[in-house]
Design a protein that fits this description.
By secondary structure, the chain is mainly alpha-helical. It has 5 helices and no strands. The relative contact order is 0.09.
Length: about 80
């Protein structure tokens, strides 16, 4: 299989790549656990917890998206006297 990947990748490496890709795409821990064929979400979480965004990451992303929408909208200028 390694020759198909163009490297010395092992099946274990491809499993990590697959799990990491699912997490990056926004899949939750139970979805990744089931896709990996694991019996317990605890094992998946202990292995990949560092890859899921924190609450702070999610908050920053949401605030950034809201700011982009507001800044992209042409709001009328308020006149001051």
């Amino acid at each position: 299989m390694a020759h198909l990947c163009g490297s010395h990748a092992k099946l274990h490496d491809l499993r990590h790549y697959f799990a990491s890709g699912l997490i990056a795409a926004g899949c939750d821990v139970v979805t990744v656990q089931r896709a990996m064929g694991r019996a317990s979400a605890t094992t998946t979480l202990s292995t990949y917890a560092h890859l899921w965004p924190t609450a702070e990451d999610t908050t920053r992303a949401a605030a950034s998206e809201m700011a982009a929408i507001v800044l992209a909208t042409h709001l009328p200028r308020m006149e001051t006297h």
